[in-house]
Amino acid sequence: MIKVLIAGAVVTAGVSLAMREQTTPSAADVPLLVTPLWQGEAAAYGQQLLLRRDAQASRDLLIKHSGHAGAYRYDGSTRSLTAVSDEQWTRAGGEVAECGKQGPPSTQVLRIDQLSHRLFAGSRELSVAGPVALALTESPSHRAVAVLSASGPAQPSLLPFLAAGGAAGQRFHQVVSLPDAALTGAVRVPVQRNEDVLSGCWSADEKAIVYYHVLFAYLSVVER
Protein backbone atom coordinates (compact mmCIF):
# COMPACT_ATOMS: atom_id res chain seq x y z
CA MET A 1 0.00 0.00 0.00
CA ILE A 2 2.83 2.44 0.86
CA LYS A 3 4.54 1.81 -2.48
CA VAL A 4 1.27 2.38 -4.35
CA LEU A 5 0.62 5.65 -2.53
CA ILE A 6 4.13 6.93 -3.16
CA ALA A 7 4.10 5.91 -6.82
CA GLY A 8 0.77 7.71 -7.22
CA ALA A 9 2.15 10.83 -5.58
CA VAL A 10 5.15 10.76 -7.91
CA VAL A 11 2.92 10.49 -10.99
CA THR A 12 0.74 13.36 -9.76
CA ALA A 13 3.78 15.49 -9.01
CA GLY A 14 5.29 14.72 -12.40
CA VAL A 15 2.10 15.85 -14.16
CA SER A 16 1.95 19.00 -12.03
CA LEU A 17 5.55 19.86 -12.87
CA ALA A 18 4.98 19.33 -16.58
CA MET A 19 1.99 21.70 -16.53
CA ARG A 20 3.96 24.51 -14.93
CA GLU A 21 5.91 27.09 -16.88
CA GLN A 22 9.34 25.82 -17.84
CA THR A 23 12.05 28.27 -16.82
CA THR A 24 15.74 27.56 -17.03
CA PRO A 25 18.56 29.39 -15.21
CA SER A 26 20.78 31.31 -17.59
CA ALA A 27 24.13 29.69 -16.84
CA ALA A 28 25.79 26.50 -15.64
CA ASP A 29 29.35 25.26 -15.18
CA VAL A 30 28.50 21.58 -15.76
CA PRO A 31 26.25 20.08 -18.45
CA LEU A 32 22.72 18.86 -17.89
CA LEU A 33 22.69 15.22 -19.06
CA VAL A 34 19.33 13.65 -19.90
CA THR A 35 18.74 9.98 -19.07
CA PRO A 36 16.06 8.69 -21.50
CA LEU A 37 16.55 5.04 -20.48
CA TRP A 38 15.09 5.84 -17.06
CA GLN A 39 12.04 7.81 -18.19
CA GLY A 40 8.50 6.77 -18.93
CA GLU A 41 7.75 5.05 -15.60
CA ALA A 42 6.82 6.36 -12.18
CA ALA A 43 9.64 6.15 -9.67
CA ALA A 44 8.95 3.34 -7.19
CA TYR A 45 9.62 3.48 -3.47
CA GLY A 46 13.15 2.38 -2.62
CA GLN A 47 14.67 2.92 -6.05
CA GLN A 48 18.03 4.69 -6.05
CA LEU A 49 21.10 5.52 -8.07
CA LEU A 50 24.32 3.51 -7.75
CA LEU A 51 27.75 4.90 -8.66
CA ARG A 52 31.06 3.14 -9.30
CA ARG A 53 34.39 3.96 -10.92
CA ASP A 54 35.82 1.95 -13.81
CA ALA A 55 39.01 0.43 -12.43
CA GLN A 56 40.57 0.57 -15.92
CA ALA A 57 39.53 4.16 -16.69
CA SER A 58 39.67 6.30 -13.57
CA ARG A 59 37.98 9.33 -15.17
CA ASP A 60 34.93 7.23 -16.06
CA LEU A 61 32.04 7.03 -13.59
CA LEU A 62 29.29 4.45 -14.11
CA ILE A 63 25.80 5.43 -12.97
CA LYS A 64 23.06 2.83 -12.55
CA HIS A 65 19.36 3.09 -11.71
CA SER A 66 18.47 0.25 -9.35
CA GLY A 67 15.11 -0.30 -11.05
CA HIS A 68 16.33 -0.51 -14.65
CA ALA A 69 18.61 -2.78 -16.66
CA GLY A 70 21.83 -1.27 -18.00
CA ALA A 71 23.62 1.86 -16.86
CA TYR A 72 25.32 5.02 -18.09
CA ARG A 73 29.03 5.71 -18.38
CA TYR A 74 30.07 9.29 -17.64
CA ASP A 75 33.26 10.23 -19.47
CA GLY A 76 35.08 12.87 -17.45
CA SER A 77 37.11 13.96 -20.49
CA THR A 78 34.13 14.79 -22.69
CA ARG A 79 31.59 15.31 -19.86
CA SER A 80 29.09 13.09 -21.67
CA LEU A 81 26.94 10.02 -20.98
CA THR A 82 26.90 6.76 -22.94
CA ALA A 83 24.53 3.85 -22.33
CA VAL A 84 26.27 0.62 -21.25
CA SER A 85 25.16 -2.92 -20.38
CA ASP A 86 24.85 -4.56 -16.99
CA GLU A 87 27.93 -6.62 -17.89
CA GLN A 88 29.96 -3.42 -18.33
CA TRP A 89 28.68 -2.15 -15.01
CA THR A 90 29.81 -5.36 -13.32
CA ARG A 91 33.19 -5.39 -15.06
CA ALA A 92 33.96 -1.83 -13.92
CA GLY A 93 34.89 -3.30 -10.55
CA GLY A 94 35.00 -0.09 -8.52
CA GLU A 95 33.45 0.28 -5.09
CA VAL A 96 29.71 0.98 -5.30
CA ALA A 97 28.19 4.07 -3.71
CA GLU A 98 24.49 3.72 -2.84
CA CYS A 99 22.87 7.11 -3.17
CA GLY A 100 19.85 6.08 -1.13
CA LYS A 101 22.09 5.61 1.92
CA GLN A 102 23.64 9.07 1.75
CA GLY A 103 22.14 12.05 3.52
CA PRO A 104 22.82 15.12 5.64
CA PRO A 105 25.28 15.13 8.55
CA SER A 106 24.27 15.46 12.16
CA THR A 107 22.53 18.78 12.79
CA GLN A 108 25.13 19.43 15.50
CA VAL A 109 27.76 19.50 12.73
CA LEU A 110 25.93 21.30 9.94
CA ARG A 111 22.29 22.28 9.51
CA ILE A 112 19.93 24.32 7.37
CA ASP A 113 17.51 26.53 9.28
CA GLN A 114 14.17 25.59 7.73
CA LEU A 115 12.62 29.03 8.27
CA SER A 116 15.41 31.27 7.03
CA HIS A 117 17.07 28.70 4.68
CA ARG A 118 20.47 29.73 6.05
CA LEU A 119 23.33 27.32 6.69
CA PHE A 120 24.93 26.97 10.12
CA ALA A 121 27.94 25.12 11.49
CA GLY A 122 27.03 25.01 15.15
CA SER A 123 26.08 28.61 15.95
CA ARG A 124 28.20 30.06 13.13
CA GLU A 125 26.45 31.00 9.90
CA LEU A 126 28.19 30.02 6.66
CA SER A 127 27.72 32.30 3.67
CA VAL A 128 26.72 30.06 0.77
CA ALA A 129 26.57 31.14 -2.89
CA GLY A 130 22.78 31.16 -3.06
CA PRO A 131 20.76 32.81 -0.29
CA VAL A 132 18.47 29.76 -0.13
CA ALA A 133 20.29 26.67 1.21
CA LEU A 134 18.45 23.59 -0.06
CA ALA A 135 20.19 20.32 0.75
CA LEU A 136 23.22 18.76 2.44
CA THR A 137 24.87 15.45 1.48
CA GLU A 138 27.65 14.09 3.66
CA SER A 139 30.55 12.28 2.00
CA PRO A 140 31.22 8.58 2.77
CA SER A 141 34.30 9.49 4.83
CA HIS A 142 32.36 12.14 6.81
CA ARG A 143 35.11 14.65 6.00
CA ALA A 144 33.05 16.83 3.65
CA VAL A 145 29.47 17.87 2.92
CA ALA A 146 28.06 18.85 -0.47
CA VAL A 147 25.83 21.93 -0.19
CA LEU A 148 23.16 22.78 -2.76
CA SER A 149 21.79 26.32 -2.68
CA ALA A 150 19.73 28.54 -4.96
CA SER A 151 19.27 32.20 -5.79
CA GLY A 152 15.64 31.79 -4.66
CA PRO A 153 13.03 32.38 -3.57
CA ALA A 154 12.30 29.09 -1.81
CA GLN A 155 9.33 26.99 -2.88
CA PRO A 156 7.66 24.02 -1.15
CA SER A 157 8.55 20.61 -2.58
CA LEU A 158 5.90 18.56 -4.36
CA LEU A 159 7.89 15.49 -3.27
CA PRO A 160 8.79 16.14 0.39
CA PHE A 161 9.47 12.45 1.07
CA LEU A 162 12.15 12.27 -1.63
CA ALA A 163 14.24 15.40 -1.27
CA ALA A 164 14.48 18.93 0.04
CA GLY A 165 12.21 21.73 -1.09
CA GLY A 166 12.58 23.50 -4.39
CA ALA A 167 13.55 27.04 -5.24
CA ALA A 168 13.56 29.43 -8.15
CA GLY A 169 16.65 30.60 -9.98
CA GLN A 170 20.21 29.39 -10.30
CA ARG A 171 21.44 26.35 -8.32
CA PHE A 172 24.92 26.34 -6.78
CA HIS A 173 27.10 23.48 -5.52
CA GLN A 174 29.74 23.95 -2.84
CA VAL A 175 31.65 21.66 -0.47
CA VAL A 176 32.09 22.25 3.25
CA SER A 177 35.19 20.55 4.65
CA LEU A 178 34.99 19.05 8.12
CA PRO A 179 35.70 19.64 10.95
CA ASP A 180 36.81 23.20 10.10
CA ALA A 181 33.60 24.02 8.17
CA ALA A 182 35.44 25.82 5.36
CA LEU A 183 33.51 26.45 2.12
CA THR A 184 34.84 25.96 -1.41
CA GLY A 185 33.96 28.17 -4.35
CA ALA A 186 30.64 27.67 -6.11
CA VAL A 187 29.82 25.61 -9.21
CA ARG A 188 26.63 26.48 -11.08
CA VAL A 189 24.40 23.41 -11.54
CA PRO A 190 21.61 23.39 -14.17
CA VAL A 191 17.94 22.50 -13.79
CA GLN A 192 15.28 22.24 -16.49
CA ARG A 193 12.59 24.00 -14.45
CA ASN A 194 12.51 26.17 -11.36
CA GLU A 195 10.23 23.59 -9.73
CA ASP A 196 12.67 20.72 -10.22
CA VAL A 197 14.17 19.17 -7.10
CA LEU A 198 17.69 17.72 -7.12
CA SER A 199 19.35 15.19 -4.86
CA GLY A 200 23.11 14.84 -4.40
CA CYS A 201 25.27 11.73 -4.25
CA TRP A 202 29.00 11.26 -3.70
CA SER A 203 31.06 8.68 -5.57
CA ALA A 204 32.83 6.21 -3.27
CA ASP A 205 36.21 7.84 -3.95
CA GLU A 206 34.70 11.29 -3.21
CA LYS A 207 36.07 12.69 -6.46
CA ALA A 208 32.63 13.43 -7.90
CA ILE A 209 29.19 14.52 -6.77
CA VAL A 210 26.21 13.61 -8.94
CA TYR A 211 23.15 15.86 -8.76
CA TYR A 212 20.11 14.09 -10.15
CA HIS A 213 16.48 14.98 -10.69
CA VAL A 214 14.35 13.15 -8.12
CA LEU A 215 12.30 11.55 -10.92
CA PHE A 216 15.57 10.44 -12.60
CA ALA A 217 14.95 12.55 -15.74
CA TYR A 218 18.47 14.05 -15.87
CA LEU A 219 21.64 14.56 -13.90
CA SER A 220 24.86 16.57 -13.70
CA VAL A 221 28.30 15.51 -12.51
CA VAL A 222 30.53 17.87 -10.54
CA GLU A 223 34.14 16.65 -10.36
CA ARG A 224 36.44 17.67 -7.53
Provide a descriptive summary of the structure in words.
It is a single chain. With 224 residues, the chain is mainly beta. The chain has two domains: 76 residues, no CATH class; 117 residues, no CATH class. The strands form five sheets. It has a five-stranded antiparallel beta sheet. Strands 10, 11, 14, 15 and 16 form a five-stranded antiparallel beta sheet that branches. Strands 1-19-18-17 form a four-stranded antiparallel beta sheet, with no helix packed on it. The N and C termini lie far apart (41 Å).
What is the chains' assembly state? Answer: single chain
Please give the count of helices. 2
Mean pLDDT: 85
**What's the arrangement of strands in the largest beta sheet?**
5-4-3-2-6
Q: What does the largest sheet look like?
A: 5 strands, antiparallel
N- to C-terminal separation? 41 Å
Taken from the alpha-carbon principal axes, the silhouette is globular
The overall number of domains is 2
**Strands, count:** 19
Helix proportion range = 10-25%
What structural category characterises the helix and strand content? mainly beta
- Rg value: 17 Å
Q: Helix-strand pattern, N to C?
A: HEEEEEHEEEEEEEEEEEEEE
Low-pLDDT regions: 1-26
Query: Which range does the strand content fall in?
Result: 35-45%
